[in-house]
Design a protein that fits this description.
single chain; about 300 residues; alpha+beta; 6 helices; about 20% helix; globular; CCR4/nocturin_mRNA_transcr; Endo/exonuclease/phosphatase
Length: about 300
Amino acid sequence: MSVSLTLMTFNLHDDEPQDSPNSWEKRRDLCISVITSYSPTILCTQQGVKTQLEFLQQGLPGYDQFGISRKGPQDTTDEHCTIFYDKEKVELLEGGTFWLSESPSVPGSMSWGSEVPCIATWATFQLKGVEPPGFSFQIVNTNMDEFSPRARRRSALLTWQHIASLPPSLPVVYCGGFNTQKESTTGRFLLGRSREHGVVGDMRDAWPSARVRKNVSLIRTYHGFKGDKQGTLEFLKLIFRALCLCWDRQTQDLHIDWILFRGRSLIPVSCEVVNDNIDGYYPSSHFPIFAEFMLPRTVRMLESPVQEDN
């Protein structure tokens, strides 16, 4: 039986005051519902604070989580880039966090004009219940600076250098909130179409590469809790930004939440902008992105032993 790897990147939009229509208390059950309906092997969350992550952990008993606050392991109040994983399907081998700065090992460090500390959380997993045993892959989950293009470019370079240092045979999925479009200098560098400090990235984008794409008409992933409904001003801004982009056939979207990948053993078969809602009420200000990757035919599910009747 063929084996696939499913992944969802989901910006949780950190908590708001309880009297807000978008407070965590009012949307947390919908978040759980969306996640369980897709049941990704890997769930990468951004902007989640401890109370949100604890609620998800309670509502997702089949998952474990890995990640720390962007202010450091002792902090309990700030945002995380957390990786949830289906503990029946994968085993966590190792993981870590580095800061998107000139001092990547210093908790809370900032550089390049960034407004807040930003991090990348990485984790290496091994599939369970497959033959031959030992198929491993790495997930890198990030949330880049919202305001500084230079910080995003240098953050992309730093993270790509981490990915490039890994064994070429190890597949990697690099996802999260990039806070810019793919035709930006950050996106073009990562996708191998421009240079940053003399080097060129080699990531691929799951969205245009997938055989099947769902909700293509949703060309943005950030919607500010409005879904696909936009006022006149927002619509004009969207058109203006689209015209300012040098679009090509590879991109044609304004996604700021991406799923990138590296490695021949990952074949994207489907990718979806998830717009699940209840009467126009959304779980977050961002649409989650869901992707399914087919693994090589040489990787197969172990067959369950046949039980003989007594």
